[in-house]
Amino acid sequence: MPTLDAPEERRRKFKYRGKDASLRRQQRMAVSLELRKAKKDEQTLKRRNITSFCPDTPSEKPAKGVVVSLTLGEIIKGVNSSDPVLCFQATQTARKMLSQEKNPPLKLVIEAGLIPRMVEFLKSSLYPCLQFEAAWALTNIASGTSEQTRAVVEGGAIQPLIELLSSSNVAVCEQAVWALGNIAGDGPEFRDNVITSNAIPHLLALISPTLPITFLRNITWTLSNLCRNKNPYPCDTAVKQILPALLHLLQHQDSEVLSDACWALSYLTDGSNKRIGQVVDTGVLPRLVVLMTSSELNVLTPSLRTVGNIVTGTDEQTQMAIDAGMLNVLPQLLQHNKPSIQKEAAWALSNVAAGPCHHIQQLLAYDVLPPLVALLKNGEFKVQKEAVWTVANFATGATMDQLIQLVHSGVLEPLVNLLTAPDVKIVLIILDVISCILQAAEKRSEKENLCLLIEELGGIDRIEALQLHENRQIGRSALNIIEKHFGEEEDESLTLLSRVIDQDYEFIDYECLAKK
Amino acid sequence: MELSDANLQTLTEYLKKTLDPDPAIRRPAEKFLESVEGNQNYPLLLLTLLEKSQDNVIKVCASVTFKNYIKRNWRIVEDEPNKICEADRVAIKANIVHLMLSSPEQIQKQLSDAISIIGREDFPQKWPDLLTEMVNRFQSGDFHVINGVLRTAHSLFKRYRHEFKSNELWTEIKLVLDAFALPLTNLFKATIELCSTHANDASALRILFSSLILISKLFYSLNFQDLPEFFEDNMETWMNNFHTLLTLDNKLLQTDDEEEAGLLELLKSQICDNAALYAQKYDEEFQRYLPRFVTAIWNLLVTTGQEVKYDLLVSNAIQFLASVCERPHYKNLFEDQNTLTSICEKVIVPNMEFRAADEEAFEDNSEEYIRRDLEGSDIDTRRRAACDLVRGLCKFFEGPVTGIFSGYVNSMLQEYAKNPSVNWKHKDAAIYLVTSLASKAQTQKHGITQANELVNLTEFFVNHILPDLKSANVNEFPVLKADGIKYIMIFRNQVPKEHLLVSIPLLINHLQAESIVVHTYAAHALERLFTRRGPNNATLFTAAEIAPFVEILLTNLFKALTLPGSSENEYIMKAIMRSFSLLQEAIIPYIPTLITQLTQKLLAVSKNPSKPHFNHYMFEAICLSIRITCKANPAAVVNFEEALFLVFTEILQNDVQEFIPYVFQVMSLLLETHKNDIPSSYMALFPHLLQPVLWERTGNIPALVRLLQAFLERGSNTIASAAADKIPGLLGVFQKLIASKANDHQGFYLLNSIIEHMPPESVDQYRKQIFILLFQRLQNSKTTKFIKSFLVFINLYCIKYGALALQEIFDGIQPKMFGMVLEKIIIPEIQKVSGNVEKKICAVGITKLLTECPPMMDTEYTKLWTPLLQSLIGLFELPEDDTIPDEEHFIDIEDTPGYQTAFSQLAFAGKKEHDPVGQMVNNPKIHLAQSLHKLSTACPGRVPSMVSTSLNAEALQYLQGYLQAASVTLL
C-alpha cells in the first residue's frame, strides 16, 4: 500500500529538520574537540604502578619511601653490565625512581637509553626478578605521554611482554598484562600492534576462577583498552575474540571487574550499528540493564553509557534495549543525585525519543515525562541541555496525541525559561520545538490557546527579543515564529502580516514573450 | 596604481571631494574611487594616507574609506573574482596591527573594525601571526597599545558568544586559548596590581579600568561555549579578583554624570554577567564561589544609588539574583525571613520607585516611556528586573513575599492620602507593586491571565483606581491617571464587566487629557477593551452597549489626533479602527465626516510617511469605512472613489513608496465592490499597472497582483476587447514573477486568474509558451512551493480547457511528456497541495483526467490510471504532506537581500476566498463517484477490473464509500 503508508514514512523524514532518525541520534564523538578538562568519571587510559600490588613479589619488598641508592650514571652503568646482579640492582633502582609518587623521571630514564636493555631483560627467563623489575619499569614509562609510550613500543617491548604472559611466575605475568594495557591504551596504533602480536588469546587464557582478584582486574582493564579508541576501531576478529570473555566477566561480583568490562562494552558499542549489533547479539542487554541499577557509580556509569550507545543504533536494536527493560530503570536514573548520571540518562532517553512513534509511546508508558520535565526545570545546565534534546527529538517524531501529552506534561514552561540560556544551539532547538508544537496546534485548531499559554509564560517577550539575536539563524527562527503564529491582530480570522519578499530577480523584457 | 606621491596626491583630492556637501561634486568623486579600487596598491595608498597625511580630516576619511573597502571586498566569494590581489592582502595583514596601535583613537576604531572583518575571514589559518603579534604587545607595558589589542581581540572573539559549536569554531577557540589564556590571565593580575599602585592617579586608573572591562568581556567570550580547562584550573584567580573588583570603590573613578555609566559601573556589570554565566552553565564547578557572589552583588545593590548611570549595573545585578533564587539548591540563601524582608525593602521597593528620570521621560519623551512601560521593551530597566526578582522569589516564597509587600502597599497608600499633591509618587509605587505582585502571567490580548490570589484586584480597583479616574480634572496627577488606566488595561480579565463598563466613559473623557501618555493610554485601553472577547467568542462589549457613547467617542478620538505630539499617534489610530470594527453600522451616519478627516490625515502624512503602524491602521480604518458602508449600500462606493482618488493620484504621482501597496489594496477593495463591468476610470489605470518600475519594488507585488486579479475578475472581456495589446505585458509580469523562488506563487495567482477569466481565444496563442516557461523553471529550480502551485494550475487548466486539452498541450511540447508529468509530479506530489480550495481544484481536475481523457483509457498511459486514482483517494483521506526538503528551509528569507521591503497586508481589505469550482462541484468525493460511474457506463466492465486489480485495499474501501454515498455503482 504505497500511498496509504505515506504518513509514517513522512513523519520519519520530518524528524529533526528532515533528517532521518539515525542522523538525529547523537553519537558521542570521542575524537571530537573538547575545551573542557577530561571527565573525572571516565575510565583511565594509562596507569602507573606506584606500589607493589602483589604480596608474593619475587623482588625484595620495596622500602618504605623511595630511597634511591644509585645515581643515574651508576644505573646506566649497571644496566649495561653483564652481571645479572648489577643489572637487577640498577633496574630496580630505576623502577623505584619511576614509581615515586611525584614527578617520576620518565623523560630522564628514556633519554638515558635504558629502554633497549630493559626490553632485553624481559627475555631473561632465568631471572624472573629481573624480568619483573624490567616489566614494572616499562609499565611506568608506558604510562607517560604518547611519546614516552612510543619509546617503549619502539624499544621492541610488545613481543617479549606477550611472551611473559605465559610465564609461570604470576607476578611477572601480571606486570606484563599491565604494561600491555598501558601500551594499548595509548591509541589505535599501539593497540593494534598489541592485537596483531596476538596478545588476545594469551590474555584470555589467563582468566581462571582461581585467579587473584587484583590480577583479574588488571586483565579486564587491559582487555578494555584493547576495545578502546576509534579511527580505526579494533578489528572484527579481535572483537569476536574478546566478547565472550567480557560476557563472562560481566557475571563477576567485583565492582572493578564489572566496571572495566562495562567500559569495554561501551567502547565496542560506540560506533556503527554493525558494531552495536555484534554486542547486542551476544544477549548481554538484560545483564547490562541489571547493572544499571547498581549502587556503585563505577558500574552504573559505564553500563548506562553502553545501553545509551546501543540505543543510538537501529530501531530494532533500540527495541531490544527497551525489551530488556531499560525504560524501567531510566526514570529513576533521571532522578539520581549525581548530575553526570542524570545527564547520561537523559542522553540515552533522547535517542529513544529519536525513534519511531511506537518507541515514543513506550516513553509515555514508562512515564518518563515527569522526571524529564523536573530536570528541565531544576537540573544543572548540562543536564538541561540533554533534556532539551530529548524533548526536541520527542516533539519532532511524535504523533499528534503524543505531542499533546508532551505539552500537558508542562514542558513549555521550562523550555521558555531556557530561551535565555547562554547556549545558542539549545536556544535554536527550543525555538524549533516551539514552532513544531505550534504547527501541530494549528492543525488541531488549538493554536490560540497554545499561543496564550506561551505568552503567559513570558515566551513572546523572549522570542521577540531573540529576533535581534546576533546569531542569524536564531534571529530568523524567532522572526518566523512571531510572524507565523503571533501576528498582532486577530480580527475576523485575518491576521496582519508583514511578509518579507525578495528583491533579487532579473528584469525581463515584457514584450519578449510575445515576440517568441 | 603605483605607490607614488602623484597617486597619493590624486587620492587626497578625491577623498576631499567625497566630503563635499554638494552631490554634484561628491558623487563623481565617489564613483571615481569605486572605479579605481580594483587596482593593486589602492588599499596601501589609503593606509599610507591615513598614516602620513598632513591633514587630519584626510587621515580619518582615508581610514573610513579603507574600512568600507575592506568590508566590501575582503571576503572571497566562491565563483567570483578575488577583488584584492594577494600581495596587497599580505601587505595589509603585515602592517595593520601596528598601524592600528600607533594611530589616534578615531582612526584606531576604524582599523580595529577592519581587522575584525579581515580576521573573520582569515583568522586563524590565513593569519597565523596575529595572535602572537597581539600577545607580544601585552609585554609593552603601554596600556594605550594594550587596550588597542584587547579591543581587537574582543571584536575577534565576541562571535564565540553566538555561533554554533562546530569543529572549526572549537579548533579556533582552542588555538586562541592556548596562545591567549595565560597571557590574558597574567595581564589581568598585573593590571589589578597596577590599579592598587596607581590608586591615587585618576588618569592611570581610567586606562587600567578600561583594560579590566575589556579583559572581563574577553573572559565572557572565551568561556561562553564551554568551560575551558585553563579557566577551570585558574578559576580561583579569576573569581577571587572578580569578587574583589565587585566590592571595590574608588572616589577617583566616580563620575559626576548622572546618565552615562562610568567605568566602575561598566566593569561591575560585566562581572555580574560573567558570574551569571558561570552560575548558569558551570554550576558544579562554580558552586563554591556562588554564595560569596550573591553576598557581594547583594551588597552592591543595597549601596548603589538611583541615578540612571547605574541602571544597567543594577538590572544585571538583580537579574543575577533572580536567576539564582529560583534554583532549588540555592533556596536556602534566601529563605530567612530577614533576608526576604531586606531584599523586598532594600532592593525591590527602591527599584520600583518612580524616579526623576522616569518623570522626565513621562513628560518629554512620552513615546519612549510608552514603549518601555506598555510594550515590555523594558528588558533592561530596573523596574523590570525588580519584577522578575519578585516573580523569582514567589516561586518558593509567595506567601511571605506577598505579606511583606502588602504592608508596604498599605503604608504607601496612607502616605499618599495624607498629602496627595506631594506624595503622589507613593501611590504610583503602590500601584506598581500590586501590579507586579498580582500578575503571574500576562498576555497582550487578555492582560493578566493568572493573578496572585492573595491580592484582591477588584477591591483595589474600586477603592484606589476609580476615584482617580472619576475626578473632574483629567490633567491632574497625570502619572496616577496613566497608572489607573494601565491598571484597567492589564486587569481587564479580572475586573468584572460592570466595572469595566463604568470606566468606558471615563476613558473616553481621558482622550482629552493633555498628557500624551494619558490620552495614549486611554486610547489603548479602549482598543483593548473593545477587542476583549466574552463567552461565545463574541466581543465582550456589544455595539449596543457602546452606542450611547458613539458620538463622543469618535469626536474625542479624532480630537486626540490634534493634541500636540499625537498627530500620528498609532494607539489612537488603532482605537479608531477598532471602534469602527466594533460599532459597524452605528458609524454610518458619521461616515462623511470621518472619511473627510481620514483623507485629510492621509494627505498630510503622505508628505512624509514616518509612522508605519499609524499609517497601517489608518488604511485599515479607511477599508472598514468602505466595507461597512458599501455592505449596506453598494452604490456608495462612488462616494468613496470621489473622496479618495484625488489623494491616491497624488500618492501615485509623487511615488510615495510606503503607501503605494496600500493604495492598490484599497483600490482592489473598491473595484471588487462594483457589481458590473469595470468603470473606465479604472481601465485608464490598467496599462500603468504593467509598468516594470512598479514591479521592481517587491513590496508592491502582492498588492499589484491582487489588483490585477480584481481587474481580470471584473473586466476580462473589456481587457480582451479594448486592451488586447496589453495581454503580452500581463503575461510578461507572470513570466517575471515565476522566475523568482519568492514570488512564483504570486505569478501563479495571476496566471490562474488569466486562465479562469480571460476568454480562451484571447490567450490561445500564448498557451504553449506558458507551459514551456513553467517547465524551464521546473528543470532549473524546483521547489516544493513551486510544485504545489504548479499542480493547482494544471488542474485548473484541466477544468477550464478539458482533460484532453491538457494532455495535448503536454504531448505537443514533447512526446510522452503527459505521462512523465503524471508519473513524476502529479502522482507523487499531489499530497503536498495545501488549502481547501486548492485541494478541491486538484480533486476535480484529476477526476477529469481519470474520466474524461480517452488516452488514459487506451494508450500506454493506461497503466497510470489506477495509481492516479489511488493518489486522488490519498488526497482525500490522508493528512497533508507538509514535509519540506532540508535545503528548502528559509528559502524565502535567504533569497532576500535585506529586510527592508516588506509588504503590509491590510486585514480589512481582505479578499474573500474564491472557489473557481464552487458552482460546478460541491462535494468532490461524490463528484468522483459520479464521474467514475459515467465512465463505466461508457465502457462497461473495464473500470471495476482496473479498480479491483491494482487499487490497494484501504483505498478501495474508501472508494466504495464514495460510491455508496453517491448511490451509484461501477458497471
From TrEMBL, chain A:
Function of the protein: Functions in nuclear protein import.
Keywords (A to Z) from UniProt: Protein transport, Repeat, Transport
Start and end residues of each stretch annotated as Disordered: 1-21
Keyword Cytoplasm recorded: no
GO molecular function, one term: nuclear import signal receptor activity
Start-end of each ARM repeat: 113-156, 156-184, 241-269, 283-325, 325-353
Family indicated by similarity: Belongs to the importin alpha family.
Annotated source species: Pongo abelii
Gene3D superfamilies referenced in this protein's UniProt entry, alphabetically: Importin-alpha, importin-beta-binding domain, Leucine-rich Repeat Variant
Alphabetized Pfam families for the sequence: Arm, Arm_3, IBB
GO cellular component: cytoplasm; female germ cell nucleus; NLS-dependent protein nuclear import complex; spindle
SMART domains: ARM
Gene Ontology biological process: blastocyst development; epigenetic regulation of gene expression; negative regulation of gene expression; positive regulation of gene expression; protein import into nucleus
Record carries keyword Transport: yes
Biased composition (Basic and acidic residues): 7-21
Protein name: Importin subunit alpha
From TrEMBL, chain B:
Gene Ontology biological-process annotations: protein export from nucleus; protein import into nucleus
Superkingdom of the organism of origin: Eukaryota
Residue intervals passing through the bilayer: none
Keyword Membrane appears in the UniProt entry: no
Key words of the record: Cytoplasm, Nucleus, Protein transport, Transport
Main location: cytoplasm
GO cellular component, one term: nuclear envelope
Subcellular location(s) of the protein: Cytoplasm; Nucleus
Domain Importin N-terminal: 29-102
InterPro entries: ARM-like (IPR011989), ARM-type_fold (IPR016024), Importin-beta_N (IPR001494), XPO2_C (IPR005043), XPO2_central (IPR013713)
Record Pfam families: CAS_CSE1, Cse1, IBN_N
GO molecular function terms attached to this record: nuclear export signal receptor activity; small GTPase binding
Leader sequence residues: none
Keyword presence, Cytoplasm: yes
Function: Export receptor for importin-alpha. Mediates importin-alpha re-export from the nucleus to the cytoplasm after import substrates (cargos) have been released into the nucleoplasm. In the nucleus binds cooperatively to importin-alpha and to the GTPase Ran in its active GTP-bound form. Docking of this trimeric complex to the nuclear pore complex (NPC) is mediated through binding to nucleoporins.
Family, per entry: Belongs to the XPO2/CSE1 family.
Record text on subunit structure and interactions: Found in a complex with CSE1L/XPO2, Ran and KPNA2. Binds with high affinity to importin-alpha only in the presence of RanGTP. The complex is dissociated by the combined action of RanBP1 and RanGAP1. Interacts with CFTR.
Record-given protein name: Exportin-2
Lineage: Eukaryota, Metazoa, Chordata, Craniata, Vertebrata
Gene that encodes the chain: CSE1L
